Amino acid sequence: MKALVYDGPREVSVKDVPDARLERPNDALVRVTSTNICGSDLHMYEGRTPMETGRVLGHENLGEVIETGGGVERVHVGDRVCLPFNIGCGYCANCERGQTGFCLSVDSDTPGGAYGFAGMGSYTGGQAEYLRVPWADFNCLVLPEGSEEKENDYVMLADIFPTGYHATELADVSPGESVVIYGAGPVGLMAAYSARLRGASTVMLVDRHADRLKLAEEIDAIPIDDSKVSPVDAVLEHTDGKGADKGCECVGYQAHDPAGNEVPESTMNDLVASVKATGALGVVGVFLPQDDGAPTELTRQGKLPFDFGQFWFKGQRMGTGQANVKAYNRYLADLIAKDKASPSWIVSHEVPLERAPEAYRNFDDRVESWTKVILKP
Ligand code: NAD
Ligand code: ZN
In this protein, which residues make up the domain named Alcohol dehydrogenase-like N-terminal (predicted)? Predict the structure, then answer.
């Protein structure tokens, strides 16, 4: 089958690889029809997160079931399914409490598994013609009749819509509250959209790219360009000097900005400073465990500065980590089915799998208007 393969930092290519196939009785095989490029893929693409060459990327997948193992009961050939990026068994101590981002049964050194992701098991990615889905009865969100028409909405349920929602859940965003979101990439935009769904009165989005900030305006969020103003000052101005009730971090660790803007080591201190005392923070941007080694140009993995004292004195709460996609996507799917949500408003490009290398380059270089790409194998 054709698949998008990681060849080394900033090098990916579409190659023939061995066909995905059933490996265990509870697997399903899916013919992929939509698979997104994610900001998380860029951690591997840029070489910041080490990944072995030859691996197939892609964790935001949707397609049609074409084969099931003998132990699969709920999912059938012909079903159209969206696959949460986290792979869960459904029965470990974390999965049974809905913490499927931290499944203990996956073949990974860390809690949690994902398709085509360094450090989260050896599962192959879905930027390919076919994908093997482990524990298929648990990991397939079966889509309703007629879902083809809203495929670009439903595929956002694999990751960024639930992840944006998770950020607002961790921050406990409630009706009438003000929220500041760092990062207007796809995840930050989905967090802003989720804050709107939860009834926030004021949503502020911080980024330095005009095209992304323009999208913020489409959902009536206040854009804050941190290459021009201090984001903390701007948030204080918009909240009568009080600070936002809640805050979300949707940037994570970054190594470069193609536009040449300064890349601070993390947004965490600004986040704490722009949220009021006793406010809550939802941090879904990905950070890696830190070592004492000097940061290199690729990794910038020195210890991140975080003013724990400021956080502590403000009595803030913080939730972190991978989103438990499965805990949300059934309900978010219903919002899509009933025309109450349409997350595809952020999609900028649909391209065939063959054009994935160009799409990666443009998305990584933040070429204007390349906000969210769906690959169509
Ligand atoms: P992205 O790289 O497209 O977007 C990041 C945005 O942050 C960019 O628009 C960039 O200009 C902006 N940015 C960079 N530095 C900034 C700063 N100092 N202040 C404000 N904005 C800044 O990525 P994305 O797809 O939107 O993903 C965002 C983060 O979320 C990544 O770290 C990704 O790995 C992570 N993520 C986490 C989960 C999860 O489950 N926790 C799931 C998906 C993605
Ligand atoms: Zn993703």
Answer: 25-137
